[in-house]
Amino acid sequence: MIFKSLYELTKEERERIxxxxxxxxxxxxxxxxxxxxDVREKGDEALRYYTxxxxxxxxxxxxxxxxxxxxxxxxxxxKVVEALERAKENIYYFHKEQLKNIKELRVERNGVLGQIVRxxxxxxxxxPGGRAFYPSTVLMTTIPAKVAGCKEIxxxxxxxxxxxxxAATLIAGDLVKVNGIYKVGGVQAIGALAYGxxxxxxxxxxxxxxxxxxxxxxxxxxxEVNIDFLAGxxxxxxxxxxxxxxxxxALDLLAQAEHDPNASCVALxxxxxxxxxVKRELEKILKDIDERKEIIxxxxxxxxxxxxxxxxxxxxxxxxxxxxxxxxxxxxxxxLEKIESAGSIFLGEYSPVPIGDYASGTNHVxxxxxxxxxxxxxNVETFLKKITYQKFDKEALRNIKDVVITLAxxxxxxxxxxxxxxxxxx
Length: 426
Prior knowledge:
alpha/beta; Rossmann fold; 17 helices; amino-acid biosynthesis
């Protein structure tokens, strides 16, 4: 843990905080390439081999049957199903509002220029398993695709030790009415979605978070299909002033830390006194934690609690570009105007990250490791294509011919110029 004034950070400490969790694929590159190649060449045979190797189960039919989905409803508490239903409604509502702001375009300048919007046809949603299963990620990845109008949506997620689909994950997929759910995870799932196999269809875009192997696999199949972005371990940065509650800040740091031993947690406070209060609260709460305690303790090794002037904390946050940014200050809306980079922002102490993780309606699939400097989180637009068009008559073509012919000939592309010139000789 780093606990000190923002102004006392060494260059190395600052770089370590800012450049957290930069993925190093060197040690896994060859194995990921081999798995993808095997899936491309051998299809379901490779999926069965790697599922047995990594998940320790033998699966003949990867597609989840209707009977298995019905069985899932009998395994899950009805309160969980109700919670998924309510979360689904909120997520649908927000993403439908997003869609309203994505416009087609038609303007007249010389000829007619325009833009039409079309949905990507086939979508693959990767839903992680392993340490935990994430039915909420089913909702977050599939609903914006549904709202966008994508025709086919498929889910892949690792099987349970019994060779089944996780019950809550299956229910979430059923509530959204996806076209298929498949019991396969890891690199092999990404390969299946990218290339297609006998049982799993090839898609046009793959979205969703995953471990470093899944992340590299997505990177390697980009170009064969589109992807959302490369997401790493979860992270939070909290800015608190003298009015902030140190207990809430400590709770939210721990909530993020329980995700993953590589999770990144940063608290930026406006005074040393407040920073010390947060540190004391962390230590106090940690004593009473039983579940996932080792994961939390490992993640907290990377914790940074820093203090300084508010304006400098904001600048540091923009440089850090967090996945989740919590503004626990007296007037968070005023600070919001100064934020340049963040995946999702939570304003005020009654807006903790978990509401965005599950039920507020915004999406929880967000850029990490500073990628929010140049990327948005998952949204309806992720699943849309913008196609431009133009319509010129002869007079409009004549008005622009000199520009086109001059530039075409400057680039040495004679037939480009002739394609325009000869039309105007007729």
